[in-house]
Write a structure and sequence with these properties.
This protein is an alpha/beta fold and about 280 residues long. Helix content is about 40%, strand content about 25%. The protein has a six-stranded mixed sheet, with helices on both faces. It has a four-stranded parallel sheet with strand order 2-1-6-7, sandwiched between helices. A three-stranded antiparallel sheet has the order 4-3-5, covered by helices on one side. Helix 3 packs across helix 4 and helix 5 runs antiparallel to helix 6.
Length: about 280
Amino acid sequence: MIKFFADSTMDISPEDVKKYDITLVPITVILGDTPYKDGYELNPEKIYDYVKETGNLPKTSACNAETYKEYWQPALDRGDEIIHFSFSGDMSTSCAAATTAAGELDGVSVIDTKNLSTGSGLLLMYACDLREAGETKEEIVRKVSSRVPSVQASFIIDKLNYLYKGGRCSGVALFAATALNLKPCIKVKDGKMIVGKKYMGRLSGVLEKYVNDILNEFDNPDYTRIFVTHTKFPPELVEAVKARLKQTPFKEIIETTASCTITSHCGPNTLGILYINDGGKVE
């Protein structure tokens, strides 16, 4: 049997985790001096409460090689073949730790998704499709790895407060964004986060422009599924985004909530649209 493991940053819904028999290996989120297992012992609401009460951000700690081996070993003992899906190696040391652990065991392959959140989750779901189609472990690894560059992952961030507290943007950038009501689009490119287009105005109007820009940017989307992944976000705006996506050929429009790890870095009122494009940009 082929068994899938993944870092807890995939942001796949609990229903799909259960449906596809995926085991999530939790990143550690630290509130003050107390460590919690992301997704197992902590939810995003506790993150917001902690930041509001203390003014501090949580810290996150990547898994080490021994942790991965502890999670994988029972499946190996059952005779399963394992594919582990890792958070981008350019953003975390988790991938390096998983690769080290896999090198000490037989039967484990690690895929560096070079992405985060459901950008990584898209590749995991694609692997589930391949497994259901009867593909071998080797073919799944090959086909999924070949599509890593095709994932289009981007997010709109309403406020830069969490990024500023985490040292990911300057005080000048925070002031300018606040004064001008700017909402940056953060994209994942080559395993790293970059700043894309900056939108100006109210969140509702910005979202409409963002969705249209994302849908019109690429010329050969895989219409199997598209993710709408968000932190704490106004429900009516999420529904408006989904209504717009229903006008497209995407077969599945999947709404998910970001993990504690992702929430710790970007804060509330962040929403992303993520899908796979097998072509290039629209000229």
